[in-house]
Design a protein that fits this description.
Layout (H helix, E strand, L loop, with lengths): L8 E8 L2 E7 L10 E10 L2 E8 L4 E7 L9 H7 L3
Antiparallel strand pairs: 1-2, 2-3, 3-4, 4-5
């Protein structure tokens, strides 16, 4: 186990009901990957969110997500976000 692939330390905060920001630290990250990284997740519409990250090695990404739920019972937190509360 010379290289850690998963983050060792992650600290995040929900800044608004739709915006979550976190910072990650990867101990012993491989040379071309981020050791320190910042991520943001923004839910801009019901079922749609955008996630972006960037780090000290210049590695970054932007991802678009569409989500849905199947079955009974809802998720109160996400239902409140969908309703704009």
């Amino acid at each position: 186990f010379d290289e850690a692939v998963e983050p060792i330390v992650t600290v995040g905060k929900r800044l608004t009901p739709r915006l979550y920001v976190e910072t990650l630290y990867h101990h012993n990250a491989p040379p071309e990957t981020n050791e320190k990284e910042v991520r943001a997740r923004y839910r801009f519409a019901p079922k749609w969110s955008l996630e972006t990250s960037y780090g000290d090695a210049g590695q970054g990404l932007v991802e678009l997500y569409w989500t849905t739920r199947f079955g009974g019972g809802g998720d109160a937190e996400n239902d409140a976000i969908d309703a704009g509360n």
